[in-house]
Known about the structure:
Blueprint: E1 2-4, E2 7-9, H1 15-18, H2 27-37, H3 50-63, H4 67-84, H5 87-94, H6 108-111
Antiparallel strand pairs: 1-2
Helix pairs in contact: 4-5
Amino acid sequence: MARIVGVDIPTNKRLEIALTEVYGVGRQTALEVCKALGLDPGMKPRDLTEGQTAELAAHLTKAYTVEGDLRRQLAQDITRLRDIGCYRGLRHRRGLPVRGQRTRTNARCRKGARKTVAGKKSVKGMK
Length: 127
C-alpha cells in the first residue's frame, strides 16, 4: 500500500478513486492533482514510483489543506462559533441540525435515537 499524507492508499483501485481516501480530497481534486503532475488518473497506485508518490504527497500538502490540518481547522471553526454564541454555534452545542433542516420529524442523525416520553393518561368522565 502506498502511503500519502499519512493515509494508506488502496493499491488496486484507479488513482483518481484511491486519492479520495485522503480526507479533503474528492474526485475533482484528485483529477486536478493528476493533471498537474502529469499522471494518468486511470493508473493503479501500485504502479507509482517512489519519486511519484513523494511528489504526489508534496503537491497535496502544498496546494491543499488535507487530513489533520483540515480536521483541526474545522474543529476550530466550530469551537469559534460556539464561543461567540451565534445561532450556528448554539445548534452545534445542542446537537441539532445547523443548516435550517426541520426537527419536528427527521433529524435523527443529529438528535440520536428516539427517547420515549411518557404521555398523560386521559381519565374519562373527569373534567
